[in-house]
Amino acid sequence: MSAKNTFISDVLVIGAGLAAERSAIECAAVGHSVIILSLVPPRRSHSTAAQGGMQASLGNIAMGKGDSPEIHFADTVKGSDWGCDQEVAKLFCETVPSMIRQLDHWGVPWNRVTAGKKKYASGIETEDTKDKEGLITARDFGGVAKWRCCYTSDGTGHTVQFVVDTQVCKMGIPVHDRMEAIALIHDGETCFGCVARCLRTGELNVYLARATIIGTGGAGRIYAASTNAVINEGTGGAISLATGVVPLGNMEAIQFHPTGMPPVYILMTEGARGDGGYLLDKNMHRFMPDYEPKKKELASRDVVSRRMVQHIRAGYGVTSKYSDQQHLWLDIRHLGRQWVWKNLREIATIATNFNGIDPAKDLVPVIPTQHYTMGGIRTNKDGAAYGLKGLFAMGEAACWDLHGFNRLGGNSLAETVTAGYICGKQVAKYALGVTRNFDMKLVDGFVKQQEEKIKNLISGKNGRENVYEIRDAMGTAMMDHVHIFRTGKSLEQGVAKLQELYRRSLKIGLRSSGQGANPELAQAIRMPGMVRTALCVAYGALMRTESRGSHFREDHPKRDDAKWLKRTLAYWKEGADLPTLDYEDVACPILPPGDRGYGEASAGPKKGK
Amino acid sequence: MGRQLTISCFRYNPNIPGDKPRMQDYKLEEHEGMTLFVALNEIREKQDPTLMFDFVCRAAICGSCAMLINGRPRLACKTMTSMLPSRFTVMPLPVFKLIGDLAVDTGTWFRDLQIRAEAWVHTNKKFDFNALEVRMENKTCEEIYDPEQCIECGCCVAACITANIRPDFIGATGINRVYRFLIDPRDERSNAEYYEVIGNEDGTFGCVGLMACDDLCPKDIPLQQNLAYVRRKMAAAGLKLDFKGVKTS
């Protein structure tokens, strides 16, 4: 057996979500031949699930008046708890307004400003003037000084992905869907493409290119409960880590979204609170103003999630039929039926489908839930991965480092297209400057290695461990030890459990025959990489003895800029059962470390009731 | 103790030589709030690791998991087992090429549709990075978002008599897709140009008006209304085109 087909292009794009497709467009626009690989058809990518919107300082709506890239930048840096790359954040904030307008030019039906006096649920009264009517509007979001979250109802990711995909169709860029990259082909210095397994037939294919882009999204599924789609298993990061030379940056920085809806943990958009929704406890008390008098429900996500868990721990959690664990309520009833079913239609539908709840008249159960991977394949500001020439990464899969230790709501969807544009251009430039030169012996070696791995999984040569048991145990270990509140002792236990699971993951044997596009085999191929990713999160969290953004250590509750203004780089050396950690300094050339204006350091412990 | 469910499931893997299409029964215990997403995964993980099906978002927004549940096309992820009798069937969607068991190839079908329907904004304007966006009424944006909500799950195609007998018919989803661009002021195509694309029996005139699509759309898109709009526009455009070549006086 050998590779069924070999495909050669100038640029190979792994993933077909927004970052991947947007970068493919930049490369194809200069005449490169581009091939996109994806687990699923592009319009099923998890980008389509983004609800609330995209942050861009258009300043059209009255509540966004006077906004600028500088203010957006300051919000982003504070949100990141000074963990982000400020050069990248500046570039991003300056570019994103034209990205929104380009998407509009391509057909995104952004909601628009309507003129007239407005009274919002929060009590704010403003007037939008005639001169702004018809321009793109925005809603409020967490951790921002101005309303700048541009949206189409609460289906923003859907409309943006569909429209970007129309451009991919128009340009005739081929998409090979149901095709999973399972190993990067490289010689330790340069990346030449990947080995991919066809999820239609089970056959192995080879893809060779001058430049390879990874845009495979996040790794939320290393947690048992996540808002992420089931395909978000961090495969792009895992195959990069497996090279031994490409590091994952800041994997301990995991975002927990305040409002996942149990028992299915589907996201209820931050737009619900942006539009004036409240969080209530078991006594129907609106508790967030007690903790965060300034930002209330709209502090950054890390802060709101911690305050919610803190409040549940203090005995105010709700026990209900919706969840085995205690939760809180999201209340948007006062926004009115028309607003809820027009501007929050998607979450209203989800609440109806999965819990039989109509949020226009009922409370919605919510609990902080794993939502976003701030870390990822560490790249420079051009999107070029550390460690291998010709390898690039963008979007949630990457640690471009726009988000540092906490991402602002609305900044990730905005990052996908902006990074796709900025870094896509750089990939196009890089690919023009290199010649195609593939060592077919090297390529065959990688194919043989993967064939051998598959053969062993099918024959059970290395053992008979059950892949689903290992996946479930990993998910539980991450929930128990590497969640919102972390301590050294618990993290140590978590790391030990994951190491044991990693050793077991190398001894997986299939129960089925593994023939054709067998789903058990697909999961078994991914499993060791997923546990390695989980270990990068857990071990990075154990070693970072401070609290910053979403990484909160109860035994080290303060941010420590003297020691920890650093970015974690996790490498995986061959034969190891733990990542090797290295660190690089985080520069703050524009905004020096200071007070975020919300969170424990600013607001202090709970006041009042 | 929940009910004992029996799920009678279509099985066939075309990649396994000699495999034959058949129905296979799986038994499992129902629990509170069980969806078909939960049930099918439980079967795969605990009983039969070869069972093929597709889920992505499990929140009814990605359109991956449409299948025939007791004969009706539905999204499996949002189908509660409590809505079903204790014994029911699951089968793959018709029309689309079978990948294996419950998984079908909607990706290729919909890609082909986008390209045939030229489903993108056609404009001669060049994007100017330094210019403000073109003004639009908010109402217009909301009207475009309505048909744009289609998640390309294929339920309307599977339910459509024309799509089941005419392989090139673009289905309600295709006509709705054209409707979305037809009402978008940014798209500069004339009705005559749309007519070139869908003014035929593989397009808007292939619909025989049974409207199962409208009943079964999991996003409740008003397909009947949108299809009627397109048909009306295209009928008018067609009449004009035909008269052009005919001397009437």
Short recap of the structure:
With 609 residues, chain A is of the alpha/beta class.
Percent in helix of chain B: 25-40%
Structural class from helices and strands of chain A? alpha/beta
Please count the beta strands of chain A (DSSP E, at least 2 residues each): 23
Largest sheet of chain A: 7 strands, mixed
Give the CATH architecture of the largest domain in chain B.
Answer: Orthogonal Bundle
Radius of gyration of chain A: 23 Å
Tell me the CATH topology of the largest domain in chain B.
Answer: Fumarate Reductase Iron-sulfur Protein, Chain B, domain 2
Average residue-wise pLDDT of chain A:
96
User: What is the distance, rounded to the nearest whole angstrom, between the alpha carbons of the first and last residues of chain B?
Assistant: 81 Å
Structure description:
The complex is a heterodimer of chains A (609) and B (249). Chain A has 609 residues and is α/β, with parallel strands linked by helices. Chain A has 17 helices and 23 strands. In chain A, the strands form six sheets. In chain A, strands 1, 2, 7, 8, 9, 10 and 18 form a seven-stranded mixed sheet that branches. In chain A, strands 19-17-11-22-23 form a five-stranded mixed sheet. In chain A, helix 1 runs parallel beside helix 4 (156-171), helix 3 (86-106) crosses helix 11 and helix 14 runs antiparallel to helix 15 (519-543). Chain B has 249 residues and is α+β, with helices and mostly antiparallel strands. Chain B has two domains: 4-104, Beta-grasp domain (Ubiquitin-like (UB roll)); 117-240, Fumarate Reductase Iron-sulfur Protein, Chain B, domain 2. Chain B has a five-stranded mixed sheet. In chain B, a hairpin with a 2-residue loop joins strand 3 (66-69) and strand 4 (72-75). The interface between A and B is large, with 69 and 67 residues.
